[in-house]
Predict the 3D structure of the following.
Amino acid sequence: MLESVRKFLSGKTVIVVAILLAIPFIFLGSTSLGTTFSSYGTVNGETVTQLDINLATSQVSQRLQSIYGEEFSLEDLDEEVSVNLIKNEVINQKTLLSQAKKMGLSTSEKTAKQEIINLSMFQGDQGFDQALFESTIRANGFSPEEYIRLVQESMSLDRLVSAMGVAAFPIEQDMLSMAAMLETSRDINFIKIDKGALADSQKASLTEGQAFYDANPFLFLSQEKRDFSYIVLTLDAYKQQVNVPTGYIEQAYADYLDDLTGQLQNRISHLMIEKSNYDNTTEAKNRIEQIRADIQTGAVTFEDAVIASSDDLASKDSLGDLGLSAGDAFPEEFEIAIGRMSLNDLSDVIELEDSFHVLKLTETLKPEIKNLEDMSKQLREDLVEAEALALMQEDFLELESLVLAGVTLGELADTVESPIAVTGLQDSESIALDNFNNYSSTDLFNPKVLPNKIEIFEGDDSYAFVMLTQKLEPAVQPFVDVAEMAIQEVRAQKANEIIASVASDAEAMLAGAIALPELTGVSKETFKNVKRFSSLLPSEVISKTFESSVGSLVSSSAFNGDTYWAQSSNEVVPSAEDLGDSVEQYQGFYSEVLGQQFSGFIDQAFKKNQKVRLKNFTSN
């Protein structure tokens, strides 16, 4: 639940309040929470506002984009799912905030303002610039009061995470104790019954098998079988229908060359003089022309001139770099100038409404141009695939509408001139549709699949129209068909009776007071110096043995059905001196275990008595 709390496990969360300005707001309209409200209720007494909803929406969106890519949008999700994600984000953040206040870790408004004042992004020539601050945050959707409150909350959460991180530091003595526990060894004396081998060794007659069959008929039910008729549309089949027109490859290659022309990208840097910093426009222009002349004569480099004189604070630290453009990213005046420049050229002085600029072309990225021979195969394949996909989609949509209209499978087949395939009566393990893999046997054997009703399955590059034509319900199979199965069940039953007999005398057998029965699959052994993570015995057996006191009898079944009875003795617990440097190998493991335990504790503690009173939080 409290995802932000868990981050302390990998280090202290550093809250940079400036990052709040980088959150791309996704304001909610009728497709999300509907009407905009002044309040959405409370969580642990903390009021939930429209701003909280906007922030939660942006945070959820960013998190999903980090997983599924930048093209992902909350609108891709079912509306109820997206609303619940936003709701949970709000609850988590407000729960953390209330806990921070409860623990006395909240940040004062004065402290938050001091943090803002120290941010470089709000500094002017004389220090903190109130006008710059207000214009910047308002441009990003905040009012000054809202931004100050967000900084307060962010700093409070940082204090909470830091405090919990301190509480989770490993203690050396605890780590030594854990290492000693893991290095502790015991001798284990045990009886093992290999159930498979024991059962196979038991004698069972046909008469006994018949008696078991008569007493347990439902153990011998056949599987349900179904027969399907179907047609499949595949992309490969439609590719065979596509003919490449004469001259197409040559024209497509010409289009390819035209497209590459538009992919040429230029990177520029600029030096900017702001008109408002001078008494008049002429003075500002004279200043930038003098700087350009100094660069041209070699008196100063372009980069040094940017550092010394540019008024664009945003690009100054990157030596005026403005990034790449393919012809449409920069103002038209810039793009025209770039078109006349060669690499490392300077532009003439460019005048915009509020400023003057000198550009430098610093990089040109030209796409690789392949020749016609290299491109012809790709162009042909692209055409064939696109045309085949269009043809298949056209037929699919037509068949889909016919299915909705209630036509038969035969009529569908006639429409697309496709043969009807038949599976024959098959059980769920054997069923298969030729040339179509995007289904599961569960889909075909779903009780909702009805006879003579066409079901549609969609694959990545194929479609299947499937109709159930016959169904055989499970029935008790004749004894002659399951005789061997019945006899094997008798053997297993006899093996179970032997296991129960050994269980009652296991402790005496381990002590040697009663002899171990001489049966296939039954054995008795002793392993020395066994540790908790030893592979000598199944993990279930070792865990249960070490969880029990020395000398007590434990019984356990392994994942493969084998049964064990074990007693431990001669426990050796290493001292700190015995452990020596081997303690270090457990440090990472200990930290991971500690983190998991502490994270679980935090989740449970914070959720306890949680009071969520949200309103206006339903999808439309």
About this structure: The chain has four domains: 3-169+609-614, 185-201+480-572, 225-238+376-472, 264-365. Residues 185-201+480-572 form one domain. The first helix runs from residue 3 to 6.
